[in-house]
Amino acid sequence: MNTTSGCCWAWKPKRNKSMSRNLLIVLFLLMIARLSAQNVLLVNGLNEAQFIYRTVPDSLNAYFRDSFAFNLAYKNFGFGMKFIAELPKYSTSQSELLGELDANRLELGWKELYANYTKDAWLIHAGTIEETFCSGIAFRSFEDIEFDQDNRLQGFRFRYDERLRVKALYGAIESPLAAGKYDLAYGFDLGYPVLNFLTLNTSAITMRNLTAFNTYSQNDVLNASMKLYLGSFEASAEYATRELYRRGMGLPAISGSAIYGTASYSLDQVQFGGAYKRYDQFQYRLQDLPLANHHSETLADDQSSGFDEEGVQGWVTYTLWDDYLLTADYAEAWNQDWDKKMNDLYLAVDWTRDKLLGSLSYSQVEKVDDGASHWQKETYPAASLGFPAWGKSLILSGEFKVVQKQQYDVSSSHYEPKLQADLSLGKLSLSVGAQSWWKDFSSLLDSRYWANLEAKYPILAGTELVLFAGKEAGGKVCRNGVCRYVAPFAGVKAELSTRF
After folding, report:
1. 142, 197, 436, 483: which sits with the fewest CB atoms below 10 Å from its CB?
2. Alpha carbon 167 to chain centroid distance?
3. Nearest Cα to Cα of residue 126 among 21, 221, 16, 19
4. Is residue 422 part of a domain?
5. What is the pTM of this model?
6. pLDDT tens digits, one per residue of 93-127
């Protein structure tokens, strides 16, 4: 979770993107020409190519994506570019999968550009921005790879980092409502260690978002935080407020707030801590909310955590005989009306001894929505064991997930067992997995099964090939206060990555 802001750079959202990219490319070529006579130029990069063939009827089968990125560094200057081809790109979201090839989903070009200059504690950066203020509650510009969402700004960033830390930014991001139109974000972040053990931080951010009425709303966010370090004791607290107005058509302003705090203490072999959260009307695009539970679960699957959620978490770990690590983690959350509630439990024993390593764990997530007369509970004990076999490293793991639901007077349940084996054969890594869905134990033979095989091999120095064949079940993934369901997969995947 992470930070930045500024306010005196004139961004013009209607400016042609290709013109801006071409200007940066010209500047890059001029930089190369000037540095060609020098011999201290550092270059590194990464190329990632992915081909997917999806064996599903009534659906587009072939997908391809390639990204080629490189970074240059010379003295105090840095420059980076990334070429991305999506012909088209495969999406894990069920709603974004294609039935037929769509011309609007074929994209290629230089999509990530940046240039920066650093001198002592100073940094000036222009282009693609990844930044976080404090914990990310108030502001975060980032790429969410797990959800396949790019929430990075394009603009200007400034940083000064000594005893006093200053961050500022001014940037734009394409609006989700209209292609080629932009939302704006600008602000600053200040931090200072007022005492050797106490650091205070404050930030202010303004976001102007395009509305459905083709006007711009304004979202002003103010944030204050502190971090305390006293030997074995650490604590942090953060408070933020927001005011959303200029919503158009006479819509009333919305006020929101967020509170998040953590504390932990270490005592020889025992460490314990806790967290508290309270979010009220505090959800927007450029943020990353901590959820204060082990499994990063939301209060309700159909509601963003920033909308209305309060909760507490407590955890403890204990190291026993240097070989065993015991973990217990429990959290509860609720909304203001107490008609939505959830609890999250995690218990685990991990051990290592000689060449053996193992783990036993138990997870439980329970959610109640009284307004919708809905209750659900997921429990999944899991185990893994790693040991040498035939002179090779072998890891066996398994999970037995039980899902129970009740909607009004209708109850249902099913089982989702999962097995996996990972084997290292020199440079070759193999992974074999199997998953199923049982209505009950009497339906084992009639149930659905997904099996897959993945192989990974470094074919050259810095180059790795990954091949996948089989089926994946898909399912729920929770991230940044939102849960969504990823699509199942059947087919083959080939991924080739090269670092230089």
Report:
1. 197
2. 22
3. 21
4. yes
5. 0.85
6. 776 777 788 888 898 998 889 999 999 999 999 99
